[in-house]
Amino acid sequence: xxxxxxxxxxxxxxxxxxxxxxxxxxxxxxxxxxxxxxxxxxxxxxxxxxxxxxxxxxxxxxxxxxxxxxxxxxxxxxxxxxxxxxxxxxxxxxxxxxxxxxxxxxxxxxxxxxxxxxxxxxxxxxxxxxxxxxxxxxxxxxxxxxxxxxxxxxxxxxxxxxxxxxxxxxxxxxxxxxxxxxxxxxxxxxxxxxxxxxxxxxxxxxxxxxxxxxxxxxxxxxxxxxxxxxxxxxx
Length: 235
Description:
Elements: E1 7-11, H1 15-27, E2 31-35, H2 38-48, E3 52-55, H3 64-73, E4 80-84, H4 89-97, E5 102-105, H5 110-127, E6 136-138, E7 141-144, E8 149-152, E9 155-156, H6 161-172, E10 178-179, H7 180-188, H8 198-211, E11 217-223, E12 227-234
Parallel strand pairs: 1-2, 1-3, 3-4, 4-5
Antiparallel strand pairs: 6-7, 7-8, 8-9, 10-12, 11-12
């Protein structure tokens, strides 16, 4: 179930596309509102904290890349679903690396957009619901669902909600290798598409924020050709 009337901010300068996305999202039960430039979009992200942001990259003035970087730099954790005609692997990976949560290449089916936004809304709702899981402690790593945060040797790892969802999904099955498909379904609510590197990008971010900061262990382990597991290994 999607959180009742989850608010979606659409940042898109093409009025026809923006209206089409808003119309389909409203029919699906979302409260969708659109703005046409990055500066206004950032302001609404700051002060309204929508449940999901749908973001075009090629915007006048402050472009979508800067919106992502600025929002994440200010600690805004709203899930960001990028919609862009820029469809190269480099563009997709770079957007994920700087803080986007998902990426759709134009043209896309509106049903897929609604599905991606719905999955992002559910991720945000679950991440804030402390009843969905207990605190997990593994050596110097502590995962706290109540605060949607990981702590390494007592210090916050400053994870985004999506990053937390991924590490928590791995920790719940501590020691078991989860495939990329399993992780995409658990965290992003979708199956892998051709050459989908979403999981790999987020694992790399977790290693930077968790493994590199941990004084005594690494936690995110790779089973080459299969997937990833969370298991404490001495450094």
